[in-house]
Every structure is written in structure tokens, then in C-alpha cells.
Design a protein that fits this description.
3-stranded antiparallel beta sheet, homodimer, DNA-binding
Chain lengths: ~325, ~325
DNA sequence: CATTGGCACTCGGTACACTCGAGTGCTAAC
DNA sequence: GTTAGCACTCGAGTGTACCGAGTGCCAATG
């Protein structure tokens, strides 16, 4: 790839991102001072088109980037992202004044990221398997109904209601909770040891039931939780989607957490990664680009934050924002942990 | 209001709901057998227009209902809703096999209602003030960081992290929790008594901090939680909105729970209520209709379920679905409570 | 006197012709 | 290799004509 051709490609992408209009050779020749005429630009553009980086929506129109063109742009011209000062400050302030429970924090982080980038944002919570049991409590809600609560090291609380024929009373529940704590505390919640019988039949039955209930919680709940912020931004970007339907399908997709989590999971170990249009396997994302970055808690990969927007998005800003947020979130959670 | 005029109004509303096209006099005269010619229908239509029930989008077009027209239709022709058998069965099955924690249940209920009506659905959770404290636990997560957990009678768990200079140890936390339980158990969570000092200085400080933290939880969190399901349906109904922007604003509105909860709260004591277009004070809802019904737990008003769609929605189906879901949800929660 | 058939009128939607201009590809000259 | 020039393409915008659904009004009707 010629240096001048690269500059032209860059110009096409940047102008198109800014104006949403196909970019012609004149505009490129004038807006950048390449020192060449529009005719030369035209020649290079035909080559770029043959190589698959740009395309014409119609004959006699300007060029727009293809997914491959965006890819080249992202790989070569956005190595480090950018973040407007006002936004950088907003992010810093948010994480300085953050004093919330984990769920609330992640939820609000997704909203922050959405506000800063003007696109939909996603935050995947820390994997539960890092969290260890710190306390267990059994509360008798009604005769025959017991609520089992486990407090985890990351401040999360897991709970499950049990319906039991045996109608255990308050004191027995307390004793069972104590026994469970003795056996479970310090173990990761999603890999609890089996309940070791104590000899007391009724207590053992309750203990085992609770152990089983926790197992069910682990099995039923995806180990990571997804928080999506700023879905309304999809409607605002509507013009960038080919169909109105495609936007509707996208919204639908976001309602089903599972898909998105699986999408986010297979991810490079570090740094910001970008996935553009057809690079996504999921067909609802054909018009979209995703910018993702993992965050680390005390050096360990813990979760992911990301931005979802049209392929025609400001990658520099998005990458900058995602990098900043993932970094700060990791720091904060490391401090809290 | 003439009987025939009412029939014509009804025809206009029903046809318009079905086809989304302005309805002409011929179509009314033919589709219904009123026994009159299109000319007569025309005469009545001009009167209906003067009375404000219908309007012409342009001269020489058919008529479409105004908000007032929908209002008359809802008040007079949809007294009891309707629910397709398949849907009725789906609702029944859902509530029979429901065995989940409260939050999950309400969330899934909103999705159910959205699926059945093909519109966005809202569920407002039971007011927290009914819930009483059943257990309190303090867990030391790290030196200087304590997580206070309160288990409530409705199976909900409230929690708050405390950062304390005093670095209380495990045993002291346990003692404080016991003291708190002694004082708080049985009291409604959002109206806890002040912490009565026990004489032990350090314990009292921790106890008071926890009491204060719980107070903050009550203050910060709206006492009811809102669950919104099927926001993607808004995009599907996009043609019914005047602007694309208006749909975007609507999505944005739904992201801010507070507004919607306040909207849902001031509500008649019982039965399904419908609020149409300009009847809503909130300007984002100018194009929307809302169908709401409260549900009761053991006879007590507890929360609300509702459907949000374009004014051009199938009110009969929506009313039927909302009525069925609110009824069943109330029953289930009464059983669980 | 309510109802109806008839009729002139309105106006959105579609089809068609035309122009304008941005943008292209190609070629010949520098 | 670069550039100026030129013919060509085609989308977008504009003006005209026409069709047809729908209306309002009026005179005729039972």
C-alpha cells in the first residue's frame, strides 16, 4: 500500500465519518493538501476500489469505505485513541465519586460510556468465579419457605428461596447457616464443595438443600452479567442502518443477554479490539462496529467494556473512551476488592 | 351520540387499527352492513369531525380517529378486553411454572406481556414499604470495608458497603449484626427505628453507620422498581410515530425509570385504565397510548403492570392481556408472600 | 325529513420528461 | 508519473399531466 493511497483512504474514511456523504476526488484533493490534483486522486481511488477498500454506492457518486477500508483505517491510523478533554474529565469524575454496589456501578458505567461516545455501551461484569463466599445466612420467610443468602467477596449477594416440607425453625436455620459457613467460607461460589454431613439429620437435609440451591443459581445464571446503556442511541443512529427492521432486530438482540455475552467473551487478552461489520458472525451486526476492551482486577482479566455503533462511527473517540473506561473501572474494582 | 354515528366511529377506529390507512366512507358502508349508503356515512362523518372524534390528514383523504375518538372507542366498545386463546394459555403456563426470585419474576413478566401484546410492557414491583426486615448480616469484605445485608420478608435483599476507619473485626461485626437484628427485625425496611445505643462504643458506631446506610438505600432507590420488556417493539411500530426522533426520545425516556414510575403511580384504585396520546402530560408520549392495571397482593394494592404502544394499537387485546397478567401476577405473589 | 344518487372538486401519488451538477474514466499532453 | 480536458453517467430536483379515492353539496326520492 502506497503512502499516498493510504492518505487518500484515510481522507475518505474521515470525511465520510464526519459528513455521512460519499466522498469525491475533489474533496479529498482540496481538504487535505496532498500536493496532487483531483485527477491523480481519482486514479488512486480506482485502484483502492479494485483492492476492496472503498466502493461507489452508484456510478457517478463519491466513494464510501468498505468494511475492509475501515479495518485498514483502524489498524493504521487509530493506534491510540483520543478522548475529548471534557469527556476525559467526566470519566475521571465518575470513577472518583463512585461509591456504589457492584451492580449499580456497572450499570452506571455503561450509561457513562454511552454518554461519552454517543453510542450504545456494554459492560460485562466480573466473572463470578473469582468471587469467594464470605458469609451465608438462612432466613425463614414463612413456615416451610427459607431464603438462603450468600455474601461474596466482591460485594455481590446471591440468593435462592427453598420450599421445604420439614418446616425448619429459626434456631435450626441458624445452626445450619453456621455449619455451611464453616464449610463454604473462602471457596469460590461457583465451585462450592459438597456439603459434609454433620450427623444431625434435619440439619443435614437443610444444608444439602441449600448447597443444591446454590448450585442451581450458578447453573441458571450466566456467570457474567451484562449491562447495556444507551439503547436509545440506536434510534438516533437510524440513518446509518440499511433497514429500519435491522435496527429493530438489533434492539431485540440486546434484550437477549446471552448472545451478546458470548460475543464479547472470545476476545484478545489485552488492549482494545475492534470488530467491523461483516467481521461479526451475527447477522444483526452486519451494519455495526464493536469496540471492546477487557479490564483487569489486580492484573487478572475480569470483564469487558465496549461500545456498539454503526460502522460509520468515530473510531478514535470510541477507542479512547473504551480504553479510558476499562482502565479506570479496573483500577476502581482493584481498590474495592 | 347517535347510534349509527357510534357504529361509524367504531368502524373507523377498527379499520384504521387494522390497516393503518385513512378510512373512507365507502369502506365503512361496505365492510359493515349498516344498511345505509356511503353518502349517509359521509354526512355523519362530517358531524363526527366537527365534534372532534375523527379528522382528515388531508383534504380528499379518508378519516382517522383523534385521541378523543380513541377515547370514545375504548370507553364504549372495549369494556372487557379480549385475549387470544393461545395467548391466554401462554400466560397461564408462565404463571404456573414460575418459581423464581422476585426480581427475575417481574422481569420475565414484563417480557411475557410484551410478547403477548407485541408492544413494550412495563411492570412496577411491589412497594418496598410492605416488606419487613427478617434478618441482618454484616460481612467484613476487607479491612475497613463492611457489607451490610438486610433480608426482607418479600425475599428481597438490600445491601450497602460501608467504609470505616475503625476496622471492626469479625466477631464485633457479628455482635453488631445481632444487636441490629434485635432492634430492627419486624420493622418495615423503609421505616426503620433509630439505632439504640448499647453502651459499647465501637459497636454503637458500627450499628449507627449501618442504620444510616440503610436509610440511604431507602432514600436513593425508588421504593418501586420498574421492569421494562420488549423495547425493540418500539422500533417495529416506528411507522406509527410522527418522527423518528420521537421514537428515540421515547426509548430515552424508558431508560430513566423515575419518570415512568411516577407516571404509573397516580392511577385509579382498580380495573384497567387507558391513557391516550395527549391525555398524557409527558410530551414524549404524545403519540402513545398506555394501558395499565394494578395488581393486588392479598387484597392490598401492590404494583402495576402496563403496556405502552402507539395510539393506533389493538386496545381490546392489550386490555385483555394486561387484565389477565395483573390478575395472575397478583395471585402468584399472594401465594408466595 | 332522513336518505340517496349524482356531480363537481380537491389533492396525494405516480409517471414522465427535463435539467443540473457532482463525480467518474479515459486520453493526450506535459 | 502527473495533470488538464472532455465526454459520459446518473442521482436529485423540478415541472407537468393524469389518475383515482374521497369529499361536500344539492336536488331528487320515498
Amino acid at each position: 500500500m502506497d503512502e499516498r493511497k493510504a492518505a487518500i483512504l484515510r481522507a475518505v474514511v474521515e470525511e465520510y465519518i464526519e459528513t455521512a456523504q460519499p466522498v469525491g476526488s475533489q474533496r479529498v484533493a482540496r481538504s487535505r493538501n496532498l500536493g496532487v490534483s483531483s485527477a491523480t486522486v481519482r486514479n488512486d481511488m480506482t485502484v483502492l476500489e479494485h483492492e476492496g477498500y472503498i466502493e461507489q454506492p452508484h456510478t457517478s457518486a463519491g466513494r464510501i469505505p468498505t468494511d475492509l477500508g475501515y479495518r485498514y483505517f483502524v489498524d493504521n491510523f487509530t493506534r491510540e485513541g483520543v478522548l475529548r478533554i471534557a469527556h476525559r474529565r467526566a470519566v475521571a469524575e465518575f470513577f472518583e465519586s463512585a461509591h456504589r454496589a457492584l451492580e449499580d456501578l456497572l450499570h452506571e458505567t455503561s450509561q457513562l460510556l454511552s454518554r461519552v461516545t454517543d453510542h450504545t455501551a456494554m459492560v460485562v461484569g466480573p466473572q463470578a468465579d473469582v468471587a469467594r463466599v464470605r458469609g451465608i445466612q438462612l432466613v425463614v420467610l414463612h413456615p416451610g419457605v427459607v431464603l438462603a443468602v450468600a455474601v461474596l467477596s466482591n460485594g455481590a449477594v446471591e440468593k435462592h428461596t427453598l420450599e421445604l416440607a420439614g418446616q425448619p425453625d429459626e434456631t435450626r436455620a441458624r445452626a445450619t447457616a453456621a455449619a455451611l459457613e464453616g464449610q463454604m467460607i473462602g471457596h469460590p461460589f461457583n465451585d462450592l464443595p459438597e456439603f459434609r454431613p454433620t450427623g444431625d439429620d434435619e440439619l443435614d437435609r437443610l444444608g444439602q438443600a441449600v448447597r443444591k440451591a446454590f448450585g442451581e443459581v450458578v447453573a441458571s445464571r450466566p456467570s457474567e452479567l451484562l449491562y447495556v446503556g444507551g439503547t436509545s442511541k440506536i434510534a438516533a443512529d437510524l440513518e446509518s442502518f440499511t433497514t429500519v427492521d435491522s435496527a429493530a432486530h438489533l434492539l431485540e438482540l440486546l434484550e437477549h443477554q446471552v448472545v451478546v455475552v458470548s460475543l464479547v467473551r472470545n476476545l484478545l487478552d489485552q488492549g482494545v479490539s475492534v470488530s467491523i461489520g461483516s467481521e461479526n458472525e451475527i447477522k444483526e451486526l452486519r451494519d455495526c462496529a464493536i469496540v471492546l476492551a477487557p479490564y483487569r482486577i489486580e492484573g487478572e482479566l475480569a470483564g469487558t467494556v465496549g461500545v456498539l455503533g454503526p460502522t460509520r462511527m468515530d473510531y478514535r473517540q470510541a477507542i479512547g473512551a473504551v480504553a479510558a473506561v476499562s482502565d479506570q473501572l479496573g483500577r476502581l474494582l482493584s481498590r474495592m476488592d
